[in-house]
Write a structure and sequence with these properties.
With 570 residues, this protein is α/β, with parallel strands linked by helices. It is built from 18 helices and 21 strands. The protein has a nine-stranded mixed β-sheet. It is globular and about 80 Å long. The chain starts with a helix and ends with a strand. The structure holds S-adenosylmethionine. The site of S-adenosylmethionine has 25 residues, from strand 3 and helix 11.
């Protein structure tokens, strides 16, 4: 670009910066969290915290979008519904959601989250279950001291060696080294002798999530805990009433991670055990993937289950008194009289069952490339649930060589879903897409696909996570926010194309945009905020750029102070 063009661009940039909208944004730039982020997520409590799922979306923001773009009774579609936040929020606001997910666990979790269930009867059923098997499970963890039996709550293992035993004596926690008898009891269990069902499948090999094809799902558990879990599941399966059976199965899958060897030991610096003078150890939790730490916990299965049950029943009691009802439809047509349709299957195929121009609003958070291989991560749950899984149709980039899920397959399948979304959405209606990527190609694919599909970009907003809600991208330049891009299905094909501008050629323009932005903050600005700002600003003008090129501009034109960028000192 010639110098005069650059000057012209710079002038436009100056003008833009003076505009009201920009000023309003810029006046917010001060504090690292709130500036430039349109929506802040609330943390997950109550029904939203009953069961783990990855990349759960904040209910308060999803609800806000549903209220903004729809009316009561409207049909809201989420073809990648995951743990079902868009589904619960649609039902609560009296819309009619359609949720699709290829992951059987996702649909199971969604159904259990929204289901209202009579808690008094459930509590009675829980008491029956407890009477039937609590003592039997607890007997697996008996710790004898001075001839008296106590119930072990936690056992710390280092590889194959039992290192520590925790038990309770009149509500007081005792931490001790194991006796020979403790070791003998722990080692008396073996996988082969377990008489009930337990998952025997092998993992796909994927070092990124610490999954090894030589290992089975049951290797995640000590033989003792596997025995406890399989006995518990066996009894749950015998519960007559289907809704209760599913509820307790839900409590089971919600607690199974904590009963695995994936629970690590936290050593608090500076805190010591009074008696042994050894560093105090605390219980970690299963986070992601199948990493078994060298030093890990074996937690009493009954305690894991009962603790989770208590948390879930508390949320269910509150839910019971809310006014909404759930009437599940089996087909799209039944949505006339019912209010929710949930389908387990690949969106690219399931959407074909939905008529043209029939959906009022689409809100979704699609799988983000290689971020989370959902079906591989959910293998443990799906296998306990005895669900068959369609790995072939998953939209994912997986590092697993066993799967053949590359970037090409990812785009091909994802684009098929976008085509279907365009077909089923009513003309002039909105499609909000939650998006989080730093990758140029992912952005370009998305924007070009949307352009080809008659979707006009209408609004770009950012969503920030509170410190307690979720761990997003931890890379230094990572987008610590999601974008929410809202498109409108245009009535005619005549929509403005997105222009890819070259940051290298338009360096002056981009630099001046960043400079004016950075200038407003005395202490400098984080990379992700600069990227957020540029993406939002340029997309509103139907322009886009390669994010990677901006990082070069930052390095060349700005200075770093700690993790923040400031104007170059002359
Ligand atoms: C980013 S997550 C959605 C999480 C969701 N927003 C929540 O709050 O829990 C993407 C979802 O897409 C699902 N998925 C992957 N491939 C799919 C396909 N072909 N059809 C439908 N769902 C698919 C995954 O199982 C995963 O649950």
């Amino acid at each position: 670009m010639c110098i005069s063009c650059t000057r012209k661009r710079n002038k436009i940039a100056e003008k833009l910066i003076k505009s009201d909208k920009m000023l309003k944004q810029l006046t917010l730039v001060e504090d690292e969290k709130k500036d430039e982020i349109n929506h802040i997520a609330e943390s997950y409590t109550g029904i939203y915290a009953m069961h783990k799922y990855w990349s759960k979306k904040p209910y308060n923001i999803i609800r806000e979008f549903i209220l903004r773009y729809t009316n009561k009774e409207d049909i809201v579609l989420d073809p990648f519904c995951g743990s079902g936040i868009s589904i619960s929020e649609s039902i609560i606001t009296e819309r009619k959601p359609i949720g699709i997910d290829i992951n059987p666990s996702a649909i199971f979790i969604t159904k259990q989250m929204v289901e209202k269930i009579p808690t008094t009867l459930l509590e009675r059923e829980f008491k029956n279950l407890r009477k039937e098997i609590k003592d039997e499970i607890n007997s697996f963890y008996t710790v004898k001291r001075g001839g008296k039996p106590f119930i072990g709550t936690h056992f710390i293992w280092k590889g194959d060696n039992l290192m520590e035993v925790w038990y309770k004596n009149k509500k007081r926690r005792i931490v001790e080294e194991p006796t020979e008898e403790d070791v003998r009891l722990a080692l008396s269990f073996s996988y082969e002798k377990i008489p009930y069902y337990y998952p025997k499948n092998r993992f796909f090999h994927n070092s990124r999530i610490n999954a090894n094809r030589e290992h089975h799902i049951y290797d995640l558990f000590t033989p003792r805990n596997l025995m406890g879990l399989s006995l518990l599941m066996d009894r749950i399966e015998k519960i007559e009433k289907s809704s209760f059976r599913k509820f307790f199965t839900f409590c089971f899958t919600a607690s199974v991670g904590q009963a695995s060897k994936m629970v690590f030991v936290i050593k608090r610096r500076g805190k010591y055990n009074k008696k042994s003078r050894k560093p105090k150890k605390e219980v970690g939790s299963w986070v992601i993937g199948y990493w078994i730490p060298k030093e890990n916990f074996e937690i009493n299965v009954w305690n894991c289950f009962e603790n989770r049950y208590r948390r879930i029943i508390k949320a269910k009691k509150i839910q019971e008194s809310t006014p909404y009802t759930v009437k599940e439809a089996e087909t799209f047509e039944e949505l006339g009289s019912q209010n929710v349709l949930l389908v387990n299957g690949p969106a690219q195929k399931v959407l074909k069952e939905i008529p043209d121009n029939s959906v009022d609003y689409v809100i979704t958070d699609p799988p983000h490339g290689n971020r989370q291989p959902y079906l591989e991560l959910s293998m443990m749950w799906n296998n306990w649930l005895k669900k068959s899984v369609d790995y072939e149709d998953e939209i994912v980039i997986s590092e697993s060589k066993d799967r053949n899920k590359d970037i090409h397959n990812y785009y091909q399948l994802l684009n098929k879903v976008f085509v279907e979304i365009e077909r089923v959405l009513k003309p002039d209606h909105r499609f909000s897409l939650l998006f989080n990527s730093l990758d140029d190609e992912t952005w370009m694919n998305l924007l070009l696909t949307m352009n080809d599909l008659n979707f006009q970009l209408e609004k770009v907003e950012t969503l920030g996570y509170s410190a307690h809600s979720v761990v997003q991208d931890t890379r230094q330049a990572g987008l610590k926010t999601d974008f929410i891009l809202t498109f409108r299905k245009a009535l005619t094909k005549n929509i403005q194309n997105i222009e890819l501008i070259s940051v290298r050629n338009d360096r002056g323009y981009i630099t001046s945009l960043i400079e004016t932005y950075v200038k407003k903050s005395e202490n400098g600005v984080y990379t992700y905020l600069i990227l957020n700002f540029l993406v939002s600003e340029l997309l509103q003008q139907n322009k886009f750029f390669r994010l990677s090129e901006v990082l070069n501009v930052l390095k060349m034109e700005f200075e770093r102070e700690g993790n923040k960028w400031i104007r170059r000192k002359i």
